[in-house]
Amino acid sequence: MKKIVICGGHLTPALALIEELRSKDRLKESVKIYFFGRKYSTEGSKSYSAEYQVITKNNIEFIEIVTGRLQRKFTRYTILSLLKIPLGFLQSFYFLLRIRPSLIVSFGSYVSSPIVFTGWLLGIDSITHEQAVVPGLANKFNALFVKKVFLTWSQTKVFFDPSKTEVIGNLLRTSIFKTVSSNTKIKKFLQNSQSLVFVTGGNQGSHFINQLIFKTIDKLDQFSVLHQLGTANFKKDHLQAQQIKKQNYLPVTDIDPDDIGSILSKSLLVISRSGANTVWELATVAKPAILIPLPASASGEQQANAKILEKAGSAVILKQEVLTHEIFIKTVQNMSRNLSKYQKGAHQLAKFFPKDAAKILTRFIYTNY
Fold it and tell me: Are residues 346 and 360 in the same domain?
């Protein structure tokens, strides 16, 4: 039996690979997938991470790795996080030694680094996929120990050893092309929606974006607003959302991967951070967006991602540091009035985005391992 460990904090491309591996497995030899990741959303959170919830729901063995990271600003969890770093390496060593997988497939983030490094010590091959235009610290570290670095963007080649790299695009879930939701509450809201605006801060959520919507929802009466709060529940955002009683507003903690396509297909406009996976999916399905890059993202990664859509004419970038409620509302209204212009830019961009990265990566795995 082929054993594959998938790890990292970027769930969307990992799910696309798992989907494709399982599809191919029906025709070829048996494969056993293990997922190494974080069980909880953030330091100190009691909320389960999106990867833990989705992976276990898909009957894949989830192995919790408790490790730390180098935080960009000092918090009450900084020292504790640093102390956890050795634990992550010890746990990775133990579980990899026990499983002895054929291959480790990394999708970046701090949780992947101890797994890739200990795999290298044990003689277990790893490959990694970088989603962003500007790679994060974890994948820069991982690249020293992996056999192959797969890239989403050709611009990213300059950060890695060219003999190891291959540009394949980002991995897409087939669910983003589905147009019918399986969630009764979401399905009903979509059916009754007029001028849908989809708001998301990613799987964990964004406290800043959540608060922005809470404070401006009364001025968005001409839209239906579907708001993904995220799993982290920063400063009790979930409770605050539940207190908003408006027919045009539906808050949800997280969104099942099978429902994302129906939401995107119905949306006139998306408001979100500009993580690599979000930007790639918005470009692929040609959706105009208001992007609010995370200020603390690695080396300005989210700003670089967002500029791709802005340059194509499909998105407007709003900087969090200077964003006011008035600027936000004015931008939403202006984009809705000129939506056809942004849609034209989005459709032009979508023509250049490949959709077969998951197939390419799966083919590589089956051919070489």
Answer: no
Give just the sign of the alpha carbon dihedral 296, 298, 300, 301. negative
CA distance 199 to 252: 10
pLDDT tens-digit readout, 234-281: 778 999 999 999 999 999 998 888 899 999 999 999 999 999 899 999
Tokens of 278: 């979000």
Say if residue 366 is exposed, middle or buried (CB neighbours under 10 Å; 0-12, 13-18, 19+).
Answer: middle
Average pLDDT over every residue of 175-187: 88
Same domain, 195 and 305: yes
CATH number at 206 reads 3.40.50.2000
Sheet containing 31-37: order of strands? 61-64, 31-37, 2-7, 103-106, 126-130, 148-151, 165-167
- Output the pTM of the full model: 0.83
Q: Which residues contact 153 (CB under 8 A, 6 or more apart)?
A: 132, 133, 167
Same domain for 105 and 137, yes or no, is: yes
Tell me which residue range forms the domain holding 253: 175-350
Cα distance between residue 289 and residue 269, in whole Å: 5
DSSP letter assigned to residue 48: B
Band (pLDDT 50/70/90 cuts) for residue 25 is low
3-state secondary structure of 142: helix
Same domain assignment for residues 96 and 197? no
Number of domains in the chain: 2
Closest among 40, 65, 34 to 52, alpha carbons compared:
40
- In three-state form (DSSP H/G/I as H, E/B as E, the rest C), the secondary structure along 327-343 is HHHHHHHHHHHCHHHHH
- The first and second tokens of residue 179, run together, are 């147009």
